[in-house]
Amino acid sequence: xxxxxxxxxxxxxxxxxxxxxxxxxxxxxxxxxxxxxxxxxxxxxxxxxxxxxxxxxxxxxxxxxxxxxxxxxxxxxxxxxxxxxxxxxxxxxxxxxxxxxxxxxxxxxxxxxxxxxxxxxxxxxxxxxxxxxxxxxxxxxxxxxxxxxxxxxxxxxxxxxxxxxxxxxxxxxxxxxxxxxxxxxxxxxxxxxxxxxxxxxxxxxxxxxxxxxxxxxxxxxxxxxxxxxxxxxxxxxxxxxxxxxxxxxxxxxxxxxxxxxxxxxxxxxxxxxxxxxxxxxxxxxxxxxxxxxxxxxxxxxxxxxxxxxxxxxxxxxxxxxxxxxxxxxxxxxxxxxxxxxxxxxxxxxx
Length: 350
Ligand code: NAD
Description:
Layout: E1 12-18, E2 23-31, E3 37-38, E4 41-44, H1 49-69, E5 75-82, H2 90-103, E6 108-109, H3 118-125, H4 146-163, E7 172-176, H5 180-191, E8 195-199, H6 203-213, E9 216-217, E10 230-233, E11 252-253, H7 264-272, E12 276-277, H8 280-283, H9 286-296, H10 300-308, H11 310-324, H12 328-349
Parallel strand pairs: 3-5, 3-6, 4-5, 7-8, 7-10, 8-9, 10-11, 11-12
Antiparallel strand pairs: 1-2, 2-5
Helix pairs in contact: 1-12, 2-3, 4-5, 4-9, 4-11, 5-6, 9-10, 11-12
Bound molecules: nicotinamide-adenine-dinucleotide.
C-alpha cells in the first residue's frame, strides 16, 4: 500500500448508505479543481469502516494526480462500496449507488474498478449519466481500456529505455502478470524485438506467452529477481518494497500496476540503487484517457492521440526529477500537485 496518510486531504468525503439494498460505502472527491472528480468504483470486503475510508481516500488522491498528469479536464475521486456480509441484490445495490452519484450533480464521475464490471456500470447508468466505462459504440472510445493502457505503458517504456541509452530491441523485459494489460504489452514488446521473461499465477497464461512470443517462464515468486533489463509489473500493487527492491536485477521499472511502490520510501530506495522508476500513474493513464474520452465525447482518434503522447508526459516528469535531484515518483507527485493548485488559482481569478 502507498503512504496511508495523504499529504493533501480530500475536498469532500461523502458516506453513502441505502439500508434497503445493503449499500454502504463512501465517495471521496479528492479534487474538483480541474473538473469533475473522476475515478472508478471499488467493490471490496473491508475489515473495518476505517480501512474502507483509508482505501478510498488514498485511491482518490492517486486518481487526482493521474488525471492531472494525463492533462485531462478532470479532477480525481473514487468510490468504495463495502461487500455486504449477507446475501444482496446486486441490481438494487448498483441502482442505489447510481442515485448517490446522481445526487452529487456531476461533481463525481464513476466507472468500473476492482470488483465492478461493465454490467454494473450499465445498471448505474439507469440512475445517472455521470458514469463511464460502458460498452463502446462503433468507432467511439469506451469498452475495455486495457489495450490503451498497454499501449501507453509500451511507449513510456520505449522512452525510458532510450533515456538509459538503449532501444527495446534485444533488451529483456520481465513481465509480471499476463492479464488484460500484460498480454497486450507482451505482444507490443515482442513486435519491438524485446525478449520476454514472464510469470503468472495462472500457468495457462504463462504458457500462452511462451507459445506466442517465445517467452521464458519463471515462477511467480521469481519474477522480480529474474535476469532482465526491465521489470514490468502488470499484476498487483505493492510489489516493490524494502524486501523486493534489493532483489531486482533490472535497471528500469515500468508497468501497468497501480501503486507499484508499497510506500514512497521504496521509490527512494530504487533511485539509490540506480534503478529508473517510470511512475505508475504517469505511464498507465491510457485506460483513464479512454474513459474520459467516452464521457467527454472525444473521438477514438483524439483518445489515441493522447495515449500516444504518454512519452512526452513521462519526459516532463523525468526532466523535473533530473532538474531537482528528485526520484521520479516524487517529481510526479510534485508536478501533479502544482497543476491542481494552479487550476485552483486560475478558477479563483476567473
Ligand atoms: P488482470 O486481472 O486482467 O490481470 C492480472 C494478471 O496478474 C492475471 O493474469 C493474474 O493471474 C496475474 N497475477 C495475479 N497475481 C500474480 C502474481 N503474484 N504473480 C504473477 N501474476 C499474478 O488485470 P489487468 O486489467 O491486466 O491490470 C493489471 C494491473 O494494471 C492491475 O494492477 C491494474 O490495477 C492496473 N491497471 C490496469 C488498467 C487497465 O486498463 N486494465 C489501467 C490502469 C492500471
